[in-house]
Design a protein that fits this description.
With about 270 residues, the protein is mainly α. It folds into 2 domains: about 15-205, CDP-alcohol phosphotransferase transmembrane (TM) domain (Four Helix Bundle (Hemerythrin (Met), subunit A), Up-down Bundle), CATH 1.20.120; about 205-265, no CATH class. The protein has helices at about 1-55, 60-85, 90-120, 130-145, 155-175, 175-185, 185-200, 220-235, 240-270; strands at about 150-155, 205. It has a two-stranded antiparallel sheet. Helix 2 (about 60-85) runs antiparallel to helix 3 (about 90-120), helix 3 (about 90-120) runs antiparallel to helix 4 and helix 3 (about 90-120) runs antiparallel to helix 7. The longest helix is centred in the N-terminal third of the chain and has 55 residues, at about 1-55.
Length: about 270
């Protein structure tokens, strides 16, 4: 009887060990999956740090390139999280902190250097600090806010950072002399800094490119924008990206004004 019990206990122990090993493997696989988006977030953060070093050393071209690289990793981070259906409080906080460095501090340093190279004033370049401050406010609002799945409230920090990087590219490449002379003026750069900082926290609704359907009518302005953006980039190259972001803001304002008018008209008919 004791031999049977012992055999039964051994079999049970082996089965339990097998289940334990299987559970450990499953947990390890889950932990690896959870780490994938965070890995790309860290690459975004590293890109931002290298870009800041490049900017302080005067290599604004490479600083802007690292900003774009950070934007690529930021996209892959979000894409992989949605693909793997993974979300965590750690990932959310890490993503915001990485974005603050790459899309808040780095464009601020780029703008600081651009203004510094065009003025003899010791104080004017410090206006670029507004970009970091208002980027932090924008990210904080996004984290605690609701209703930013279909639209963005204020200009996204990524779009703002890419816009500033294209200004840097435009000045450095100097393809259009008249435009470069205008955009590189310290007062133009300072005014743009104030304007972009305001747009980051402004209570304006901008299009979010999250498609629930690919039908034409509900997404008509998104498709029009994408087509126009391709034409602008193909025609004006780097400068086309700047024009495309400005078009994005204008079309978004038009879209939500039109949507508000349609909603008001429907409500009046019901009343």
């Amino acid at each position: 009887m004791s031999v049977c019990c012992q055999a039964h206990d051994n079999a049970y122990a082996k089965r339990l060990n097998g289940l334990t090993e299987e559970a450990c493997e499953t947990l390890n696989a889950m932990n690896i999956k959870k780490a994938i988006p965070n890995f790309f977030t860290i690459l975004n953060l590293v890109s931002g740090n290298i870009g800041i070093i490049e900017a302080f050393q005067g290599s604004l071209f490479y600083a802007a390139l690292y900003l774009w690289l950070g934007a690529f990793f930021d996209f892959i981070d979000g894409f992989s999280a949605r693909l793997l259906k993974i979300s965590s409080p750690l990932g959310k906080q890490l993503d915001s902190l990485a974005d603050l460095v790459t899309f808040g501090l780095l464009p601020s340093v780029i703008m600081y250097r651009l203004i510094q190279e065009e003025t003899t004033s010791l104080y004017l370049p410090f206006i670029a600090m507004l970009i970091t401050v208002f980027s932090a406010l924008r990210l904080a609002q996004f984290n605690i806010g609701k209703g930013q799945k279909k639209v963005f409230i204020g200009l996204p920090t990524t779009a703002n950072a890419i816009l500033i990087s294209t200004i840097s590219f435009s000045i450095l490449l100097d393809r259009y002399a008249f435009f470069t002379d205008f955009i590189a003026h310290p007062y133009t750069l300072s005014s743009l800094t104030v304007l972009f900082s305001f747009l980051l926290v402004a209570k304006i609704k901008l299009m979010a490119f999250k498609f629930t359907t690919y039908a034409w009518y509900p997404n008509r302005l998104k498709y029009i924008f994408l087509l126009c953006a391709i034409v602008l980039v193909a025609t004006f190259h780097v400068e086309g990206i700047m024009f495309a972001i400005l078009l994005y803001i204008i079309l978004s304002l038009f879209f939500h004004k039109s949507l508000y008018a349609q909603t008001k008209l429907k409500n009046n008919k019901k009343a």
